Amino acid sequence: MGNKEHIINLFKKYLNDQYTEKELDEILAYFSLEEHDSKLVHLIEQELEHVSEIDSELINSIGEQVAHNLFRQTKPKSTKVLTYRHWLPYAAAMLIIFMTSLWLYRYTGESKPEIKEPIIVEKVIPPGGNRATITLDNGQVLILSEDQEGIVNSGKTLAYIDGSTIQGVHDARSITLTTPRAGQYRVTLSDDTKVWLNASSKLIYPTSFAEDERIVDISGEAYFEVAHDAERPFFVRTERQTIQVLGTRFNVQAYVDEAMQHTTLVEGAVMIKSVKGSDIVRLKPGQQVIANEDDELSILQVEPQEYVAWKDGNIILNNYDLPEILRQLERWYDVDFSAIPAEAESDRVFGMIKRDVPLHDILRSLEDSYNMIQFKINGRRVMVSKK
């Protein structure tokens, strides 16, 4: 093809189901195909991945069309749908589309479900917020302000982000920052390292680090922006991994109720050692290490934004199954879900959930996506049943 923008425009029309027969013939000729079959979407995906010299306006245009194709609830033309890494070049455009709403897409062969009545709830369950406690090494527990986003450690002084001092911690040598269900908080450590703590998580750290190393312990989920200090390596310890860094940005998910624990590198470099085994791996940006229940480490190539979006108020669902989604909702909304009908457990969902909407709004979207199930809220218990 002599005109790159022309063929990209054809791809856009195809993904949006707005092509003519003549345009389809041109696309087929481009890929040397004799007829329209299931390979075509995959070939277009691959071709778009290699496009590198398109102006930003065209990228945004294609991104919008791919986004609509991903999230509409109609039968895909191929047995394979576009995954997050395939629409990565268009992430900026897609985020603009989804920032003000909640969208879900489930890959099934079913048509769009009929309009249903809203979920009726006696009490609206709001999303989580800034909730946390600190426990000092003398056993004293302090409840942190919900009006603040985080705390800052400076030697023996502990203050909120706005500068107001937290009293009674000047003699503490170690602090445990704990978020409950429906809670999140951030902390700036004494070396200027910043940590965002997700719901149901715990961070143990010293008020002042040693001269030769910096060590913290984490359970649950946390995002780190580690201050560079070549003389003092930074170690993050979980139940299954020890992560060593000098200065970098990464996310650690180490919930005890998840079979897999993973560390996702956004920037810099980290070295990870299995706690019980002998495996040692080194990550590059865009890679993730997974520790299974046998403490075996494996590396995947991922899109980091998918795993750090929670700190910015989003949950990105890239090929998630319903149990994975509900565990996240349990932690963020402080609810418990009943057992899931077996028919719905394995279906995968693509989309994005805003973390600042009431629970019933998300459940309604899940009902639209999984049109075989329904939810009923009873207090903080959510019943999941088959229709």
What report would you give on this structure?
The chain starts with a helix and ends with a strand. It has 387 residues and is α+β, with helices and mostly antiparallel strands. β12 and β13 (241-245) form a beta hairpin. It has three domains: 4-98, no CATH class; 129-307, Jelly Rolls (Sandwich); 313-386, Phage tail protein beta-alpha-beta fold, CATH 3.55.50.30. The protein has an 18-stranded mixed beta sheet that branches. A three-stranded antiparallel beta sheet has the order 1-22-20. Strands 21-24-23 form a three-stranded mixed beta sheet. It is 22% helix and 33% strand. It has helices at 4-15, 21-30, 39-49, 56-71, 91-98, 305-308, 322-333, 359-369, and strands spanning 103-106, 129-130, 133-136, 141-143, 150-154, 157-160, 174-179, 183-188, 194-197, 201-206, 214-225, 234-237, 241-245, 249-254, 261-267, 270-274, 280-283, 287-291, 297-301, 314-321, 336-337, 348-354, 373-378, 381-386. The chain crosses the membrane at residues 87-105. Keywords: Membrane, Transmembrane, Transmembrane helix. This is FecR domain-containing protein.
